[in-house]
DNA sequence: TAAACATATGAGCAATTGTTCATATGAATG
DNA sequence: CATTCATATGAACAATTGCTCATATGTTTA
């Protein structure tokens, strides 16, 4: 069985003091969870240079309109994309430059 | 039924040309998926200032040694943490500054 | 206002995932 | 070399998730 003995009480104490609030850590994880799906990553890259409507995203990624719409909903809920209406079509774009920054930083790490 | 009509063929074409390779996009998603769990986020924050052994991380986060070890395995596999042995204990630390940068950038977005 | 079109949404299913529990590995110590 | 300690690992289970299919909503146009 575990003894759970603390090897370095000072360090543990220090960590506990500096750890951000539970709620913030949860929100942070949720943000990254949204980035953690290749479909959503693709959709965001699709919008990297210019805005697009749902049908065109689906066409470009060879996906169902429904699947794209479902994922746009998630992106929207997390303020990663915004949209405007133009007649019957909804035109989506990246919400702010944080999205591009986060993608770029992740790319740095992936490309080594 | 869907008509799948392309509303903006030029834009679709442009997107297809500039979209990163499938494999890279997948790796990128996998990287963020690792960040997308609050337990792993907590573990990384635990290591933000100084290295720690497994038992101390478990103690600080009030988690099972096993659960922490399983997650460290995931972080290790994605090159987000590294470790060294010191006798019986394994001492973990963040692998590079990309980790801190990504966490910080995510924090920016979460804090609005 | 009825039909066509673009998008959104809900239910259901298969696949993935994080935890627990039990046990294995590997190093230090008597 | 047997025991103790720190960590790692495998199996199993519950919960979450992304897709499909069918249908609903809302806008334009004939």
Describe this structure as you would to a colleague:
Two copies of one chain form a homodimer. Chain A is of the alpha+beta class. Chain A has one domain (9-110): Winged helix-like DNA-binding domain superfamily/Winged helix DNA-binding domain (Arc Repressor Mutant, subunit A, Orthogonal Bundle). The first copy, chain A, has six helices and three strands. Chain A has helices at 9-18, 22-35, 38-46, 54-61, 65-77, 97-110; strands at residues 52-53, 81-86, 89-94. In chain A, α4 packs across α5 (65-77). The termini of chain A are far apart. The mean pLDDT of chain A is 92. Chains A and B meet through α1, α2, α3, β1 and α4 of A and α1, α2, α3, β1 and α4 of B.
Write a concise synopsis of the structure shown.
Chain A has 112 residues and is of the alpha+beta class.
Spatial ordering of strands, largest sheet of chain A: 1-3-2
Q: Identify the CATH architecture of chain A.
A: Orthogonal Bundle
Question: Could you give the order of the helices and strands of chain A?
Answer: HHHEHHEEH
Specify the structural class of chain A.
alpha+beta
Instruction: Tell me the radius of gyration of chain A.
Output: 19 Å
> What is the fold named in CATH at topology level of chain A?
Arc Repressor Mutant, subunit A
Number of domains of chain A: 1
CATH class of chain A: Mainly Alpha
Report the sheet with the most strands of chain A, covering strand number, pairing sense and barrel closure.
Answer: 3 strands, antiparallel
Mean of pLDDT of chain A: 92
Largest chain interface and its two residue counts?
A-B, 59 and 59 residues
**How many strands of chain A?**
3
Give the strand content of chain A. 5-15%
- The separation of the N and C termini of chain A measures 40 Å
Quaternary structure state of the chains depicted: homodimer
CATH homologous superfamily name of chain A? Winged helix-like DNA-binding domain superfamily/Winged helix DNA-binding domain
> Are there runs of chain A of 5+ residues with pLDDT below 50, and where?
none
The helix fraction of chain A, in percent, is: 55-70%
The number of helical segments of chain A is 6
Bulk shape of chain A: elongated
């Amino acid at each position: 069985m575990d003894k759970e003995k603390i090897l370095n009480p000072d360090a543990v104490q220090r960590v506990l003091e500096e750890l951000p609030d539970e709620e913030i850590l949860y929100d942070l994880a949720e943000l990254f969870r949204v980035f953690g799906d290749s479909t959503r990553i693709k959709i965001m890259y699709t919008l990297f240079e210019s805005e697009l409507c749902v049908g065109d995203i689906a066409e470009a990624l060879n996906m169902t309109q429904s699947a794209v719409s479902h994922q746009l909903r998630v992106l929207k809920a997390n303020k990663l994309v915004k949209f405007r209406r133009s007649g019957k079509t909804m035109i989506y774009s990246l919400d702010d430059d944080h999205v591009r920054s986060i993608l770029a930083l992740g790319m740095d790490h992936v490309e080594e």
